Amino acid sequence: AGAFVRSYLDAIAAGTLVVEDWYTPDALQIEWPNKITPNGAERNLGQIREAEARGRQIVERQSYEVTSLIADGDRVAVEAIFRASFRMDLPDLPKGSVMEARFAIFFELAGGKIRRHRTYDCFMPSA
User: Fold this and answer.
1) 57 with 84: CB under 8 angstroms?
2) Between the N and C ends of the chain, which has fewer C-beta atoms within 10 Å?
3) One-character DSSP codes across 89-118
4) How are beta strands 113-123 and 23-31 bridged, if at all?
5) Strands, DSSP E only, in 14-91?
């Protein structure tokens, strides 16, 4: 399960993620409130696909540096440093600047795919 999640994060970073290859049809992704999504979000498979496509349009480069990963059967907890630069200016972040965040991500797998995905994102102050 841990290797699967690492491969999933690598696919996001590479821009090669095909949502249906990684998520179950009844998948649910919860993004708790943060600087980018102040009200948080709860997404089904179609909404995960839409969010991934939007991200691909605005993100120039991104990476996940996994600092901790704990796998227990079909449950995986990850701490990662997320870094990204964008194709456009964002509030407090000029185009091309690198944004950094600390993510805690919790996955529940079923049948070799992600069924539940909860993320707690902590965006670092802009320089």
Assistant:
1) no
2) C
3) -BTTB-TTPEEEEEEEEEEEEETTEEEEEE
4) parallel
5) 23-31, 41-43, 59-72, 75-86
pTM over 0.85: yes
The type of residue at 65 is E
> Two tokens at 49?
């696909």
Q: Coil, strand, or helix at residue 55?
A: helix
Yes or no: say if 105 and 116 are a contact pair by the CB < 8 Å rule.
no
Structural contact between residues 76 and 106, judged by C-beta atoms closer than 8 angstroms: yes
What is the C-alpha to C-alpha distance for residues 118 and 26, in angstroms, rounded to an integer?
A: 14
18-28 tens-digit pLDDT: 999 999 999 99
Write the burial class of residue 127 (CB in 10 Å: 0-12 exposed, 13-18 middle, 19+ buried): exposed
Six token digits for residue 85: 């630069």
